[in-house]
Amino acid sequence: MQRLRRSLPFFALLLTFSLPALPAVGAEGSGPTIIVLDGSGSMWGTIGTERPSKFDLARGALREALSTASPRARLGLMSFGQRRRADCSDVEVVAPPEGGPADRIPSLADKLNPKGKGPLGLALREAAKQIPPDQGGNIIVIHDGMDNCGQDPCASAADIAKTNPKTRVFLIGFGLEKSDLQRLQCVVPTTNGAVFDAKSSAELGEALAETLTLANLERVDPATGLAVPLPKAAPAPNPAGAPGLRLSAALSPEGAPLAAAVFSVAKADTPNAPVAKSLRGRDLALDLDPGSYVVEARFGQASARQTVEVAADKPTVVKVSLGAGLLKLTARADKSGTALTNPFVTISNKDAGGALRPVWVGREADLEMVFPAGSYQVRVRDGLAEQTTDVTIAEGAGVEVNPVLGTGRLELSAVAAANGAALSDVSYTIDEDDPDSPQGRREVARSADPTASFTLPSGTYYVTARSGVAETRERIALGSGGVIKHVATFNLVELSVNARPAGPVAGAATRPILIRILGEAQNAGEIARSSGGTGVFQLPPARYRVEASVSGLNIKTLGLVDLSNGRGGSVQLALEAGEVSIVGGGGSVRPWRVKDGTGRTVMHSGPGMSSSAQLAPGRYVLLTDAEDRRIEQAFDLKAGERRQLAVGAP
Questions:
Q1: Of 291, 313, 319, 290, whose CA–CA distance to 241 is shortest?
Q2: pLDDT tens, 487-531?
Q3: Which domains can be identified in the chain, with CATH numbers?
Q4: Whole-model pTM over 0.70
């Protein structure tokens, strides 16, 4: 049978030992034992294939476990939820702790009638009040669910540790969810207690029997009726064998040796010059001369150093305590166990003032590692989702952290139209509701990747896809662990543009051609552009101006296209031009310039300037600056025409 014992099951993955039993204390120090029986309505349910209710099975297990209890054992009984429905204050001390026949406890339990809520946290606090702080004692709870009254059992256990530091808390979960059992592991390091998982009546009986043993409950021998003495710790045997150093390491002074700790040994007067290092093993035997040595042990993130005296006449046995515990992290996207897409984990040590110091950073969602005892913060981030958990790692104990980020994956792509080609020129923005934002929404992510992917906390998002002046908007509900592949569909049509120089002017054909798509209105801005003599554009149905121009020249043409019918189209644009050559007059060189009809200079004289150029058809004027006057020569240039003008000619 598989049970969740007080030493967590994941210890077997890293260590070849299990944590030792809790140290026994004498009967005089065991104190009273309070048994808390869950009286919530869910206890009338069944477990597995067994026909009796969980409450009847619990009463039977309690009767069997207490059948050998000594009359000297001080036992008390409490319950919660057994008197009133929907009352989170329904916690009752059925019998205060006192000596006497132990069978009175199950007899009183037979009279209870589960019906109400499950204030587990309050029950723990009230049970602790029955135990004198200076005596210590035990609180044993049999329950089938978490607190459903808004209290945190971990906080209750922490308060008990402060007010009743000698009191231990034992929780026996009867049919609990795995996640709830993991959350309750906090009582193990906090109160030196234990958590058990029982999935049947047989496992419940075993867990209860072991709990009473850990609680040092005095028993009687059924055959003789005499009290059975509590076990006493056996003294450690004197080491035997040849002189030298017998070396091991453990998480705590009482812990079993670690299987793979790493050791370094140096003489005390030269601690930085090891005589043996990077030694790995469970029990190491080293032949060393007598004297003082510094021994260092490391395992995971924990290390410890101590000075030892190696004797000359016998083995020197040293177990280095790392003062550490084990942290197991299992981070998932949802409760069903969906793996995280790209987790980023930071484990930070937290000092007394709350300051954080990162001690481990990585991308492993499943991690088992030893850390020095202390307070830590575990932060797991995946995409835009993040969860932070504060944990306390105790010496020789283990703690599980199982964050569920509640994330989903949103994968975006875009097509020009239904069943159309994929778009490469597209960008996405993702917004979520935000009452504090002026617009009521807040942008949380954006991307210009045409096949963008986002990891987001589950929720409702507004996805906007943009391609040029076109955009689509979609409201998407993303569930925890889900993957949504959303294709943004634009109602776009295709426009093909072909622009080429016309006529016999060959020079213009060697220059780059720019194609621009403009809105229909004269003052409308540019919507799209393409470099080259051809361009293919995906546009929303509408009317557009199409402009083509030759780079560096005033050669330009403009056309109109109507795509409002939604069927697409094509445009052929001819870039017409003529050629003008300027020659000097009368052997003299005079400054000159050519202006177009708008007064813009399109040619001029000067060092490095050409006296020949291709120009768009139209009316021009050649201006020449003479010594005492300016000479203006107006001329018209037709498409395909070649003209030669003399500077200063009348």
A1: 313
A2: 999 999 999 999 988 765 545 556 789 999 999 988 888 999 998
A3: 25-228 (3.40.50.410), 244-322 (2.60.40.1120), 325-401 (2.60.40.1120), 407-489 (2.60.40.1120), 493-575 (2.60.40.1120), 578-646 (2.60.40.10)
A4: no
